[in-house]
């Protein structure tokens, strides 16, 4: 036998072996149990606590924070407080050079003394002219002129008294005092710096009343503000302590809207205790406001609600047993009684229509693997924390739901691969 014929026989033997193996594999693939064709990743339904939150962000601030300024202009002569200084109300913080204001006060005192002397002279002149007028030695006009001069002297004294008081107030304002008890968290001036008070008072210090009590001004979008209520529990974290959770409570929801890049937000004030003073003013807080909390409820992973089987997989509709939650008193029990009442009375009130609409919105589909087949199960759900969702009806604790699956290889695709291989061998 020639080498060419021998090579041809070897080739056909290899092709025949490959075809026989392919047919055998195809027969095994088609006859194997259907459960083996579905490679599914499943997770069990569990029980536990569940909290629904609204997330927001805001700055940590002292509850009472006062900016200390100056109502007069001048040069800072002395400073008596620095950053982190603990001060009492009325304690001296700084002093402005008082020379100009002392001079103004002395000048006002001199003008007032001069005005008082003129008043005394006018009073003497008035008494004298009144006696002369009784004896008909002067005319009525001369007496009236004397009385007018007296009134002018009295008015001049009042004007100068006011000028003196203003000069004394300006002189007293050269000493900057703390308006409240607290801690200096900011100092914006140095000795020798000129303070110019024109239209607004320049800021010299910022004093926080009590750093053991703080608050967060969180901005909540209008889509979530309807679920925020006073006294709700809050958990938050700051970048300085990423592994630590802090707690607080909602104390106020302000009605004033704040527009940020066309998004309407509302300030929500959160009271926080800070006994160790870990939280510092200005820190950014990532806030989670707990708007609903459930204890010991069925939980289904959200991945199971997002899962959708491939189009090549046949899905069987099933009526699984009702969840354990239906046996207990809860939202589903009340919903069931309402539905029964509506069926019996057939009253089409607006409230019942609204309840049915909300109930319809809460219905979702999950998939379970039973007897080698994928079954769709209708679920009634409640609140969610982003990872798990409260389950009212549809499955029981311990049941497994499909969260992912590999698309099975079909016989058509297998045959196509065999033909492609044979075509390549030719």
Structure classification: alpha+beta
In the CATH classification, which architecture of the largest domain applies?
Beta Barrel
CATH class of the largest domain: Mainly Beta
Taking all Cα atoms into account, the compactness measure Rg is: 44 Å
Number of strands: 20
Strand arrangement within the widest β-sheet reads 2-11-14-13-12-15
**Helical segment tally?**
9
Give the percentage of residues in beta strands: 35-45%
Number of domains: 5
How would you characterize the largest beta sheet?
A: 6 strands, antiparallel, barrel
* Assembly state (oligomeric): single chain
Portion of residues in helices? 25-40%
Model regions low in confidence, pLDDT < 50 over at least 5 residues: 320-352, 354-361
Please name the CATH topology of the largest domain: conserved putative lor/sdh protein from methanococcus maripaludis s2 fold
Mean pLDDT over all positions: 82
Distance from N terminus to C terminus (CA atoms, Å) equals 22 Å
Helices and strands, in order, run as HHEEEEEEHHEEEEEHEEEEHEHHEEEEH
Rough outline: rod-shaped
């Amino acid at each position: 036998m020639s080498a060419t014929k021998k090579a041809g026989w070897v080739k056909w033997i290899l092709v025949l072996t490959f075809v026989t193996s392919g047919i055998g594999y195809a027969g095994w693939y088609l006859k194997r149990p259907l459960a083996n064709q579905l490679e599914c990743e499943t997770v069990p339904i569990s029980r536990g606590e569940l909290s629904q939150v609204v997330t927001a962000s805001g700055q940590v601030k002292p509850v009472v924070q006062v900016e200390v300024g100056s109502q007069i202009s001048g040069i800072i002569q002395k400073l008596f407080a620095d950053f982190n200084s603990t001060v009492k109300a009325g304690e001296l913080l700084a002093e402005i050079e008082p020379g100009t204001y002392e001079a103004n006060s002395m000048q006002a005192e001199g003008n007032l003394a001069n005005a008082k002397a003129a008043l005394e002279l006018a009073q003497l002149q008035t008494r004298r002219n009144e006696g002369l007028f009784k004896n008909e030695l002067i005319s009525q006009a001369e007496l009236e002129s004397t009385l007018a001069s007296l009134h002018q002297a009295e008015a001049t004294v009042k004007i100068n008294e006011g000028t003196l008081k203003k000069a004394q107030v300006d002189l007293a304002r050269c000493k900057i005092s703390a308006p409240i008890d607290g801690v200096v968290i900011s100092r914006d001036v140095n000795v020798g710096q000129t303070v110019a008070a024109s239209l607004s008072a320049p800021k010299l210090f910022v004093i926080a009343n009590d750093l053991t009590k703080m608050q967060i001004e969180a901005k909540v979008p209008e889509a979530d503000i309807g679920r925020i209520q006073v006294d709700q529990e809050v958990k938050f974290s700051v970048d300085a302590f990423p592994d630590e959770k802090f707690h607080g409570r909602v104390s106020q929801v302000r009605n004033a809207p704040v527009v940020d890049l066309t998004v309407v937000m509302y300030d929500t004030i959160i009271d926080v205790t800070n006994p160790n003073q870990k939280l510092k003013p200005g820190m950014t807080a990532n806030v989670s406001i707990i708007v609903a909390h459930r204890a010991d409820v069925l939980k289904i992973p959200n991945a199971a609600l997002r899962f959708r089987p491939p189009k090549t997989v046949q899905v069987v509709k099933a009526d699984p047993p009702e969840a354990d939650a239906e046996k207990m008193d809860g939202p589903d029990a009340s919903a069931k009684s309402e539905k029964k009442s509506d069926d019996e009375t057939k009253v089409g009130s607006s409230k019942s229509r609204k309840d049915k609409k909300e109930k319809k919105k809460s219905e979702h589909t999950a998939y379970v693997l039973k007897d080698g087949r994928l079954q769709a199960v209708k679920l009634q759900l409640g609140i969610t924390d982003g990872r798990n969702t409260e389950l009212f009806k549809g499955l029981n604790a311990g049941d497994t739901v499909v969260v992912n699956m590999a698309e099975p290889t079909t016989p058509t695709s297998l045959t196509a691969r065999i033909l492609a291989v044979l075509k390549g061998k030719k």
